[in-house]
């Protein structure tokens, strides 16, 4: 008898607590017509002070967003005191000198069997792996007065299949010339222009010369051969490629479909 009385009281207590909890939950979480929770102010009004009890994150005005650290990365706010600057000034005025151009042309010619041939390696080579060559020749490494020329072509593996290293000791003085009747095209000195001041056409083929800036510009060009406008990147927008030297097949040689024969009825 005592046990059934006690269990009635116990379950009455449990039901009572559940009912109270239900109403407390409703009072806490249900949005009111004036806004969410206490202390936010009326709808449309920006909150000025929020009590710690309020569980909503205050919305910001658009104007405030830029100057407010927010979210999980709020500790990463950009405070670049000094942006990295390029050691090369792309917009510095470039004065071309005819003597520089002549001496550059002469040095280039001395290292090539003919214009467009792969230049020989003019220095001793200890390590003939691509990675070793690429370390100096990808970005124009500077060593004192010397500058490693930038590759004018895209990365091609096995550099020494085309670029001949100097002969090994004791064969440096051996005469390696071979009689040949081959005569290469002469190196160009300038491109044709439609009128003075017009962009010159490209007087050489673009084969193995995809990287124009390797010879003509920026920090890596050959002295006297730089373009005065290294910041313009789409070179062939203005400089017309040579159809003849790029070995494009002349249109009248391409065996197109025979002309249509229209037979009148
Ligand atoms: C330690 C840096 C370094 C390494 C490694 C190196 N070179 Fe050079 N290379 C130079 C420098 C500097 C010059 C310019 C020398 C000069 O102008 O007298 C040069 C010049 C050249 C040239 C002549 C370019 C021209 O247009 O006249 C070629 C070709 C060349 N190197 C190919 C190679 C190849 C292939 C390798 C790998 C087997 C290689 N180099 C490894 C620094 C390097
Ligand atoms: C398939 C042959 C071939 C391979 C492989 C090759 N090159 Fe060349 N390279 C050439 C030719 C051809 C030229 C000359 C382009 C011209 O003057 O028209 C050249 C030009 C160059 C130049 C001189 C650019 C200038 O200023 O005139 C350098 C430096 C050079 N190559 C470095 C390398 C390096 C480093 C490698 C290996 C990662 C390599 N080449 C692989 C054929 C090759
Ligand atoms: C391997 C080196 C090399 C590369 C790479 C190269 N050129 Fe040249 N270019 C020369 C040489 C050498 C000349 C003749 C000397 C001169 O006029 O500066 C020349 C001449 C020119 C001229 C005529 C300049 C004048 O004064 O009349 C134009 C335009 C030109 N090149 C455009 C280009 C463009 C565009 C590219 C890239 C698709 C390119 N070149 C890539 C070596 C190069
Ligand atoms: C918006 C058009 C335009 C673009 C893009 C352009 N050039 Fe030129 N370029 C010219 C004109 C115009 C001249 C003639 C300038 C003169 O005679 O004063 C010229 C001249 C040159 C010359 C002869 C030397 C000089 O500066 O007078 C070279 C070499 C050259 N350009 C190379 C290049 C290369 C390499 C690129 C790409 C990096 C390039 N150009 C992009 C218009 C352009």
Automatic annotation (TrEMBL):
<dbReference type="InterPro" id="IPR036280">
    <property type="entry name" value="Multihaem_cyt_sf"/>
</dbReference>
<feature type="transmembrane region" description="Helical">
    <location>
        <begin position="6"/>
        <end position="27"/>
    </location>
</feature>
<feature type="domain" description="Cytochrome c-552/4">
    <location>
        <begin position="123"/>
        <end position="163"/>
    </location>
</feature>
<keyword id="KW-0812">Transmembrane</keyword>
<keyword id="KW-0472">Membrane</keyword>
<keyword id="KW-1133">Transmembrane helix</keyword>
<protein>
    <submittedName>
        <fullName>Nitrate reductase cytochrome c-type subunit (NapB)</fullName>
    </submittedName>
</protein>
<dbReference type="InterPro" id="IPR023155">
    <property type="entry name" value="Cyt_c-552/4"/>
</dbReference>
<dbReference type="Pfam" id="PF13435">
    <property type="entry name" value="Cytochrome_C554"/>
</dbReference>
């Amino acid at each position: 008898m005592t046990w059934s009385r006690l269990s009635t009281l116990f379950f009455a207590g449990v039901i009572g607590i559940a009912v109270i909890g239900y109403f407390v939950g409703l009072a806490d979480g249900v949005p009111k017509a004036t806004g969410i929770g206490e202390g936010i102010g009326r709808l449309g009004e920006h909150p000025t002070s929020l009590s710690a009890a309020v569980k909503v994150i205050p919305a910001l005005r658009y104007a405030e967003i830029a100057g407010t650290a927010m979210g999980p990365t709020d500790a990463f706010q950009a405070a670049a005191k000094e942006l990295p600057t390029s050691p090369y000034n792309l917009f510095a005025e470039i004065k071309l000198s005819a003597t520089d151009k002549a001496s550059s042309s002469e040095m280039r010619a001395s290292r090539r069997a003919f214009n467009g041939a792969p230049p020989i390696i003019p220095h001793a080579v200890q390590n003939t792996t691509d990675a070793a060559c690429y370390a100096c020749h990808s970005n124009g490494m500077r060593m004192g007065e010397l500058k490693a020329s930038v590759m004018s072509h895209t990365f091609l593996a096995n550099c020494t299949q085309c670029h001949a290293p100097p002969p090994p000791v004791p064969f440096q003085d051996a005469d390696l010339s071979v009689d040949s009747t081959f005569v290469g095209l002469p190196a160009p000195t300038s491109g044709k222009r439609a009128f003075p001041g017009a962009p010159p056409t490209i007087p050489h083929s673009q084969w193995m010369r995809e990287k124009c800036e390797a010879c003509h510009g920026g920090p890596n060009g050959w002295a006297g051969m730089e373009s005065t406008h290294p910041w313009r990147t789409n070179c062939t927008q203005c400089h017309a490629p040579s159809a003849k030297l790029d070995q494009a097949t002349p249109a009248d040689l391409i065996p197109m479909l025979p002309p249509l024969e229209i037979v009148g009825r």
